[in-house]
Model the fold of this input.
Amino acid sequence: MPTKMPQVREYMTPTPHTIASETPLKEVQELMRQNRVRHLPVKKGEALVGIISDRSVKSALGSTGENVLTAEDIMIPDPFSVSPQTNLDEVVAAMAEEKYGCALIRDDDGKLVGIFTTVDACRALRQVLETFYPDRN
Done:
């Protein structure tokens, strides 16, 4: 049985897709569909400036008749971020408490190195359950 709390880097999705802040929402929606993701980190140049969710995109596109909005218009600035060494229990506790759909993983220099989503959390839970309850009957 494991004795040490796993770190978020063990379960994160490395090198997530990102989008530029000026990307039109229709394009954001298409990129999400093509890559089968629900969250995209938003960059302005090399700087990480926000996160955008598929729910936000669908809501914004449904409320406007025009395609004039960009990722920057609806992104959440200053997204929840942790280091790769953060203990998994701390990350999932914060996500549950604050109702975050994901955590961005940044290295010591602030560079985006991964994303930890609710899907990743479900995979981690499955592994923990299989470890502690190997006999399903």
Remarks:
- The chain has five helices and eight strands.
- The mean pLDDT is 93.
- The CA atoms of residues 38 and 54 lie 5 Å apart.
- Strands lie at 13-14, 19-20, 39-44, 47-53, 76-77, 81-82, 102-106, 112-117.
